Amino acid sequence: MNHEKNQPRQEEANDPHLAVNSANDGPANSGISRRGFLGFAAASIFLTGAGELASPPESRNGIPYRTLGRTKEEVSLVGLGGYHLGKQADAQESIHIIRTGLDEGINFLDNCWDYNGGESEIRMGSALRDGYRQKAFLMSKIDGRSKAAATSQIDESLRRLQTDRIDLLQFHEVIRDNDPDRIFAEGGAMEAVVQAQQAGKIRFIGFTGHKSPDIHLKMLATAAKHSFTFDSVQMPLNVMDAHFNSFEKKVLPVLFKNNIGVLGMKPMGDQVILESKTATPVECLHYAMNLPTSVVITGCDSLPILHQALEAARSFKPLGSSEVAALLAKTAKSAQAGQFELYKTSHNFDGTYANPQWLG
Question: How confident is the model at residue 59 (pLDDT cuts 50, 70, 90)?
Answer without folding.
Answer: confident
